[in-house]
Design a protein that fits this description.
single chain, alpha/beta, 2 domains, six-stranded parallel β-sheet, two-stranded antiparallel sheet, 35% helix
Length: 354
C-alpha cells in the first residue's frame, strides 16, 4: 500500500477577499474528511524564504503532496523546487478552462537540467485555486488522485525508491535538502489532528523561478541580468541566487530565455506567469505574443528597455543593447527589423485556428 497519508497543502493567497478565504477553508474542511489525508494550511508559498518554518516543514514531509495555490500549476511546482521541495509533476485533470491543452513537446536533442539533476520520484500534484469556484470539484480531484496512487501500487508501478521510502521513511526527499530541525517534526505539528496551520507573515516578493524541465543551462539569463539575481551552483547549473535583488515588476530576463523557462508567477501575462502553452509544434516568440507592451517591437528590444528602466530607477546608467546581449539575441533582434513583425505574428495566429 502507498504511504498511509497524503498531505494536502493549502497555500493561502495574498488577497483578503472573503470569497477566496471561504473557498480555501471549504476545501480544507472537506479534504480533512477523507481517509488517510492530512491538511496543512500555510501562507502564500511564493512569498516565503527557504528558511521559513513552512518550507522546513514541507521538506520534512514524506510521500506525495497535493498543493493548492493561487498560481498556475507550473509556477507552483517550480517555486517549491527552488526551495528544496522536489518531486515529479503529478498529473492534474482539474484545470482552468483555457488551460485544457497540453504543453508542446520539447525538442529531444536539447538536454534539460532535469536530465542532469533528476528529482525525487515522489509526486507533487499542483492545483490552481482558479480552476473552480466549488470545493466539491477539488475534493473529486483529490479522490481521483488517491485512487490513482492506490492503482499504481496494486499494478506494481510504484518505483523501488517509493517502496523503500514507504517501508522505511526518511525526511530527505530532495537531493541536497538541508537537515530538518527537531522543531519542524510533523508529528508535533499535527499531533492527533488531521489539520495543521503554520502562521507566518511574509511580505510580498518578486523574483524569477526557473522551470528546470525546460532550462538547458544556456546562461542567457545570467549574462542579461545586471542586478546579480542569477548565479551558478557547485555543479555549474544556473540558479536564482539572490532573488530579492530582482526589480519588482521587471520580467525582462523571461523575454530573452530561448526555452521560455523563466517564470514570474505574479506577472499579469499568463505565458510569463507559468501558464501552459501549446503552440501546435510551431515556434512562436511567446514573449511577444503575450507580453510585449508595444506592437511591432521585438522581444529583445522590449527586454532591454525594461532593464534600462530598472537601471535608471536604481540610480545607474542605461545600457540598451550594449551589455548582456549574446550573438543569438543580437541576430534575433537584427532579423526582426528586416520584416513586418506584426504581419508575421498575425499569420502565425491564423495558422493556430484559435
Amino acid at each position: 500500500m502507498p504511504n498511509s497519508e497524503l498531505t494536502v497543502v493549502i497555500s493561502q493567497g495574498q488577497s483578503r477577499s472573503p470569497d477566496k478565504r471561504d473557498l480555501e477553508q471549504a476545501i480544507a474542511d472537506a479534504a480533512a474528511q477523507l481517509n488517510s489525508v492530512r491538511v496543512l494550511k500555510v501562507p502564500h508559498l511564493y512569498d516565503l524564504p527557504k528558511d521559513s518554518e513552512t518550507y522546513k516543514t514541507l521538506r520534512s514531509l514524506d510521500g506525495d503532496l497535493i498543493v493548492l495555490s493561487w498560481l498556475f500549476d507550473r509556477a507552483t511546482h517550480w517555486t517549491l523546487d527552488r526551495q528544496g521541495v522536489g518531486g515529479q509533476v503529478g498529473e492534474v485533470l482539474l484545470k482552468q478552462e483555457h488551460d485544457d491543452e497540453k504543453e508542446a513537446a520539447e525538442p529531444e536533442e536539447l538536454e534539460r537540467v532535469t536530465n542532469i539533476q533528476p528529482r525525487s520520484n515522489r509526486r507533487i500534484y499542483c492545483i490552481d485555486f482558479r480552476a473552480s469556484q466549488n470545493a466539491s470539484d477539488f475534493v473529486e480531484e483529490f479522490k481521483r488522485i488517491i485512487a490513482e496512487r492506490q492503482s499504481d501500487w496494486l499494478s506494481g508501478e510504484a518505483t523501488r525508491e517509493q517502496m523503500a521510502r514507504f517501508a522505511q521513511p526518511t525526511n530527505n526527499t530532495y537531493v541536497g535538502a538541508p537537515p530538518v530541525p527537531a522543531e519542524s517534526s510533523v508529528s508535533v505539528l499535527f499531533g492527533t489532528n488531521s489539520v495543521a496551520t503554520i502562521d507566518e507573515h511574509p511580505g510580498r516578493r518578486w523574483y524569477p523561478v526557473i522551470d528546470f524541465s525546460r532550462c538547458t543551462n544556456c546562461m542567457e539569463c545570467i549574462d542579461f541580468c545586471l542586478f546579480g539575481v542569477y548565479g551558478v551552483d557547485t555543479v555549474e547549473t544556473i540558479v536564482v541566487e539572490q532573488p530579492d535583488n530582482c526589480r519588482k515588476g521587471c520580467p525582462a530576463c523571461s523575454r530573452v530565455c530561448p526555452q521560455n523557462a523563466i517564470i514570474f508567477p505574479q506577472h499579469k501575462t499568463p505565458a510569463i506567469a507559468g501558464a501552459p502553452v501549446d503552440t501546435g509544434g510551431m515556434k512562436i516568440d511567446l514573449s511577444k505574443l503575450f507580453g510585449a507592451p508595444d506592437e511591432g517591437e521585438d522581444a529583445v528590444a522590449v527586454a532591454a528597455r525594461e532593464r534600462d528602466e530598472q537601471l535608471i530607477l536604481a540610480g545607474r546608467h542605461a545600457v540598451g543593447l550594449s551589455e548582456g546581449i549574446s550573438d543569438r539575441l543580437a541576430k534575433q533582434s537584427d532579423a526582426s527589423k528586416k520584416h513586418d513583425e506584426l504581419d508575421d505574428l498575425i499569420d502565425q495566429l491564423d495558422s493556430l485556428n484559435l
